[in-house]
User: Which sequence fits this backbone?
């Protein structure tokens, strides 16, 4: 082999090696995809488009009550460290502290879920019947907060709502990946029941929930 040919081969080998090294480095620096460990980090609680200004109109239309303030105690251990936005006004809510010392019915839903839309009015009626001894708190599990507010306004449902696009509450409480789903929490923070099903009426909700919290049927 002539000298010029040998040098050409050497240069090509070096170029290929440098190319592979650069490719590996770029791969290491890139965020992991859906199957990677950062999948949840890549999700967001709400869309970039859902700014305070953009949400002002939908919030006024929904006219939701404020989310619960801090209760008594540290709250459910599984939810400690989770802070979410209250859909009514955008205020941050320390979820565990907000639920502390309260009997709570968490209703997990999304604006695009048909059975959720059918169930939400029943949840509102259940809250009306149950009174202040039980707190019904809905948890919207999609990034589109505007759509959630508009859906609640359309349904006329006025329940305190947390915006949880990353579904952190469901993950922390190990709720099956279905919607709607309801989690019943006792005042001491323990989980009384997880109900991965839909309810059509307030009577159905009472029949399923009240025995778990010691309330009359």
Assistant:
């Amino acid at each position: 082999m002539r000298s010029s040919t040998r040098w050409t081969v050497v240069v090509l080998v070096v170029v290929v090696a440098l190319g592979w090294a650069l490719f590996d480095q770029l791969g290491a620096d890139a965020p992991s995809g859906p199957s990677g460990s950062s999948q949840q980090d890549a999700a967001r609680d709400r869309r970039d488009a859902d700014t305070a200004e953009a949400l002002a109109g939908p919030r006024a239309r929904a006219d939701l009550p404020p989310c619960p303030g801090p209760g008594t105690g540290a709250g459910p251990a599984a939810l400690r460290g989770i802070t979410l936005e209250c859909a009514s006004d955008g205020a941050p809510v320390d979820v565990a502290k907000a639920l502390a010392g309260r009997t709570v019915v968490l209703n997990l839903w999304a604006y695009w879920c048909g059975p959720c839309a059918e169930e939400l009015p029943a949840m509102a009626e259940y809250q009306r019947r149950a009174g202040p001894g039980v707190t019904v708190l809905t948890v919207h599990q999609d990034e589109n907060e505007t759509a959630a507010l508009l859906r609640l306004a359309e349904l006329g449902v006025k329940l305190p709502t947390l915006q949880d696009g990353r579904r952190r509450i469901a993950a922390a409480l190990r709720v099956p990946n279905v919607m709607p789903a309801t989690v019943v929490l006792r005042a001491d923070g323990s989980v009384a029941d997880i109900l991965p099903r839909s309810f059509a009426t307030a009577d159905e909700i009472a029949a399923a929930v009240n025995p778990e919290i010691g309330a009359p049927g």
